[in-house]
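Tutorial, part two.
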Amino acid sequence: MQRRDFLRLNAIAGASALLGPSLAGCSQPAEWQRLMTAGPATIKPTVCNMCFWSCAGQVHVRDGEPWKITGHPDDPHSMGRLCTRGTAGLGAYYDPNRLIKPLLRVNRGGSQQFDVVSWDDALGFIAGRLEKVAKEHGPEALATLVHGPGAEHFVHLTKAFGSDSISEPAFAQCRGPRDTGFYFTFGEGIASPEQTDMENAKCVVLIGTHLGENLHNSQVRTFADAIRNDATIITVDPRFSVAAGKAKYWLPIRPGTDIALLLAWTNVILAERLYDADYINLNTVGFNALAAYIAPFTPEWAYVETGITADVIRQTARIMAASAPATVIHPGRHTVWWGDDTQRARAVAILAGLLGIWGQKGGYYMPESVALPEFPLPAYPVPKKSWRDITISKFPLAGQGVTNVMLDNMVGSDAYYKAMIVYDTNLPMTMPNSRATLTKAAQALDLLVVVDVQPSEMTGFADVVLPECSYLERYDPLRSESERDPCIALRAPALPVQGDSKPGWWIAKQLGHRLGLDKYFPWNDYTEVIDWQLKQVGSSLTEMQTLGLKPYPRKTPLYLTPGAPLNLQTPSGKIELYSQALADAGFDALPRFTRHAQRPDGFFHLNYGRAPQHSFSRTQNNPVLYQLMPENLVWIHPDTAMQFAIDNESYVQLVNQDGVVSNKVRVRITERIRPDSVWMVHGFGHTAAGLTLAYGRGADDSALMTRVLYDPIMGGTGMRGNFVTFRKEAA
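Running the prediction step on this input gives:
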């Protein structure tokens, strides 16, 4: 096997596979002037792909040219308005660095490079390598890592090939601990979008949740409704976030002590009997065990750990209880922090259970989706070895494949996985401390395929790079997610395809054909699948091409009947305050607070988050969003700046506890961050030179996360246990 070198697209023949500046038509003032005087617009439906919220939208086209993208007025995700990123969707279409031709890694003159090749050559190469892997190791040796709605095409291809080793990095790097903790309490995870009834809440508790900066569209809108309705906002965050600026109580907690605060809140509610005893008796199990366990965790005890005074802990707990069941304790989303994150989610869920907010107005409503039938296909082959055989031995309660476990099983000559397909996910910027493992995996794999719209750090590892067209140029699976009001939304091509890029469904079907899997792809065009599904629920592709979104009546109540017994999918059918299932698996049945590593002298907690201008690391090269935020800043408290003689807006390098040094990053000196911490927006510091706007701009926080704290229950990669100090840079 030839050793794979990391390849930079702008320095090789593959640069000709980028869109280039000549097609970025809307960047010129003359073009804008022409568009301002163009004729009436036609509207074409889409579903935004600028983040996972997937708002239904409308593409306005005038005289054959795109004008703007707006939110669909009937969409519960967007309520008719797109966020900053959604309105910048045309920037993704016109991104001058888009991939538009397939690339194949070749060895020439003793060095490696990417050659531009035909689709037939690229797909034939992939099919040949996959057939070889299946013959020598079995089809189970293929692993597929995916993200986003278009992933369904490659999930289907992988299962048809004979493997179920499919992972979404977001499970172990984002929401997995939250969903696992709620599952062991309520029998199900939290929906996406989250079923928080904030518009009807009297109290909203945000613990490490940055509403207003993450721009989860409907969440921000309903949070604004809560503020407008004078709900009491309680924000727990080491940083004075946008949400904290709207709060009555800002609790600047010491990093790593969230469980201590949650246990103390629970202590107050139990000690002062601020719960509905009838509700508890009817709908919970383990109350007595919880009450006995929680007794030592007083607000005075928590003050020592968290830095939040006992009086504030009691005041905020009493407000939550007095407002219940119209109290939202937001479950958060990016919940991989300190390695005990499933238990942190359990502590949130237990508190929610005590307050009786499950299924109640102003608490958590009951989401509903339109049940779309599966297109009739043959059953998938049963793999001889499953992802469970590999993952469960390490993380016994993981609900799906864990990405870092799969990567570990690609390393070495005896690695289990021999081929990998990566769809729309940039692993080096997503997974902490992953580049070394990726480099080793790339040496061992027989095949590594990357499917993406633009070059990234991940494409540099690939044998083959396949250019997918943007979401504005393709059909994808129908959007039918659980929401307050069930509906279906259509993503359809609204603009001409750029270059020789192709939709994901076409790529998967063509690979399936070359692998002899035609029976799993019986359609000529994916619109046949969409039309069939729509007709099963009383619509059609023709109708949806006009409507874009179709609402459906609810079949179940939005709220559960107050006073009626719950019927949950837990073993007991009730809220499991004490989890016997966790105990049986060898884990704590009730959340345990653990003191995490203390920061070394001269070092500071590395905290990170999001900004309204960007979606993690996906949008920094978008020419519209780049102008709004070209680089990230590192927030430093004035006392820290004085200690290190750092000036505001100067550049520094961050050095972590293991000596890893960041790119230079500009300083923002502010009292909105604790003196023991720094904070920065995630997703900057790109090293993929094909991204001509984003390359080298700002600092990459993920590269500084060399200490990963794994959740032993489900494999979440806790990223907050890292510390940094400063190296001053010349201007």
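Residues 22-27 have pLDDT under 50 and may be disordered. In part three we will examine how such features are distributed along the chain.
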